[in-house]
Write a structure and sequence with these properties.
Elements (H helix, E strand, L loop, with lengths): L4 E8 L3 E10 L2 E11 L3 E2 L2 E2 L2 H19 L5 E6 L5 E10 L9 H11 L8 E13 L2 E4 L9 E12 H12 L4 E7 H9 L2 H6 L1 E6 L4 E7 L2 E8 L3 H12 L3 H11 L12 E5 L6 E5 H26 L9 E4 L8 H9 L3 E3 L6 E3 L10 H12 L1 H30 L1
Helix pairs in contact: 1-3, 4-10, 6-7, 6-8
Length: 412
């Protein structure tokens, strides 16, 4: 098997840590290793116990290394948490050279101008994502290099995070002797795993509902326009079940996955489920409808909070492609149907895209969307593409030299 490049996505979440190893062959991703561990030491996506977080990451990484038979030396790390904020901004530069041809240096200058904003002292930039370039008033340009113009503008989406939260995550990874290729906003990564280019172009909302946080993002014109992380997600549903049914947290999580639904009306009064009691080995029978009545209000609250963020940002009526749900909580029975009924828009669960091979059957679940998205982000990143083009150029040069040598030696 020819290995062009091995990349690793590391999703450090509130409830789980996932390490995914991908072998990149001609731009296609072959998944060759998966490691998963329960996450300890994080709350709402933020590290609160470095030692326990390191231990969780180590377990996931070692499992992925053993499966893939590789030594992981660097990773693309996803980041989320309520400390994440975003803003849209723009910048402008003039092209004063006689030929007026826009160069990569001009693009760098205009992006630097757009990101020159005043940040709170406790924040730092994670991403500066160009949404579009404008050359002499012509908008919608994705790559202006080589074009002619006198005025270059750019619209960017800037993502920031708390310095302490970012640096603590970095410390946990680097403590294992692993380098970080890049820190990537998790909703951006997830979008690369579950959204189609048509949805991104038309206008779509993505909600990645994990254990501790829900990542919300809006895409229009092919690019990200809005991102937000709210500190409410699947754990809150589980906690409500624990209190409402007076059952241990582990049992509540299992019941949520196996018998839970977000649609009360879909359950008959006669359906019963067996539930363990707190502090004893006894079981009790509980109406499944009662379980649904606990889950539905929490799902309603969670989705309403997310949609309100989109509404407040002014994008509620600009997403004809509707809502895509991903993350572990998107597997909850009836959640997509509930959202479609409540908001009157198309709703679907995210699916793993084409171009993913290898252990596809293992990672088909939405719970791996962020990790897969991190691999796709790596493949599509400018540095990776630049390295790949350089390798291709060297290979072409070597082949050319071999042909020239062959012609001289055998035909000369």
């Amino acid at each position: 098997m020819r290995k062009e490049k091995v990349v690793v996505g590391l999703d450090v979440g509130t409830t789980k840590v996932v390490a995914l190893v991908g072998n990149i062959i001609d731009g296609s991703i072959e998944i060759i290793g998966l490691g998963k561990a329960e996450s300890h030491g994080l709350e709402k996506g933020v590290v609160v116990d470095i030692g326990r977080t390191i231990s969780s990451i180590r377990k996931a990484v070692e499992e992925a290394e053993n499966m893939a038979d590789v030594k992981i030396s660097s990773v693309y790390v996803g980041i989320a948490g309520k400390h994440i904020t975003s803003i849209n901004n723009s910048g402008t530069v003039s092209i004063n050279r006689p030929d007026r041809i826009i160069t990569e240096d001009d693009v760098r200058r205009v992006v630097e101008t757009a990101q020159a904003i005043q940040l709170p002292p406790e924040s730092e930039m994670i991403h500066v994502i160009p949404r579009q370039y404008i050359v002499d008033g012509q908008d919608g340009i994705t790559d202006p290099v080589g074009m002619t113009g006198t005025r270059l503008e750019v619209d960017v989406h800037i993502v920031t995070g708390a310095i302490t939260a970012v640096h603590n995550l970095v410390r946990c990874v680097e403590a294992l002797g692993i380098g970080i290729e890049q820190i990537v906003l998790e909703p951006l990564a997830s979008s690369m795993a579950v959204l189609s280019s048509a949805e991104k172009e038309l206008g779509v909302i993505l909600m990645d509902i994990g254990g501790g946080t829900t990542d919300i993002s809006v895409f229009r014109g092919g690019d990200i326009w809005f991102s937000k992380v709210i500190p409410i997600a699947g754990e809150h549903i589980t906690n409500d079940i624990t209190v409402g049914l007076q059952t241990p947290i582990e049992e509540a999580e299992l019941i949520k996955k196996t018998a839970g639904t977000a649609l009360v009306d879909s359950v008959s009064e006669d359906e019963k489920i067996e539930v363990a009691t707190i502090g004893g080995d006894e079981k009790k029978m509980v109406s499944r409808k009662k379980l649904a009545k606990i889950i539905e209000p929490r799902v309603e609250e969670l989705l309403d909070l997310g949609m309100q963020e989109v509404e407040d940002a002014g994008y509620r009526d600009l997403v004809p492609a509707g809502l895509v749900l991903t993350g572990g909580t998107s597997l909850l029975d009836g959640i997509a149907e509930f959202a479609a009924q409540r908001y009157g828009i198309p709703v679907r669960r995210g699916k793993i895209p084409q171009g993913i091979h290898g252990l596809r059957d293992i990672v088909e679940s939405p719970i791996y969307a962020t990790a897969i998205g991190l691999l796709r982000y790596a493949v599509e990143s400018r540095d990776f593409q630049k390295t790949r083009r350089a390798q291709q150029k060297r290979q072409a040069s070597l082949i050319g030299k071999l042909f020239a040598w062959f012609n001289r030696f055998f035909r000369g």
